Amino acid sequence: MREIHLDFHNSPLIKNIGAQFDPEKFVQTLLEAKVTSVTCFAKCHHGMIYYYTKLPAQHPHLKRDLLREQIAASHEAGIKVPIYISLGLDEAMANLNPHWREVSHDGKLGGSAPLEAGWKKLCLNNNPYLSYVEEQIDELFSLFEVDGLFFDIIYQGECCCHNCLVSMPAEGYNPEISEDRKAFAEKVLLNVKKRLSSFIWEKKPGCPVFYNAGHIDPSIRSSLAYYSHLEIESLPTGGWGYDHFPIVARYARQLNRPYLGMTGRFHKSWAEYGGYKQPAALEYECLRSVAFGAGCSIGDQLLPEGRLDPEAWKLIGDTYRTVARYEPYLQGAKPATELAVLMPETEERIDEAIAGANRILTEAQYQFDLVDSKCDWSRYAMVILPDCIELDQKLANKVEEYQRQGGKILASYHSGLQQGQFLPSWPLKYNGESEFDPDYLLPLSPWQDLGQVPFVMHERAADVESKAKWLAERWRPFFQRSWRHFSNHFHTPPEGPLNRPAAVMWDGGIYFAHPLFTIYRRHGSPITKKLVLAALKELLPEPLVVSNAPSTAQLLLNYQAKENRYLLHILHYVPERRCDVDIIEDPLPLVDLKVGVKVKQPQRVYLLSGEELAFKYDFGRVWIELEKMVGHELVVFEL
Question: Can you give the pTM of this predicted structure?
Answer without folding.
Answer: 0.96
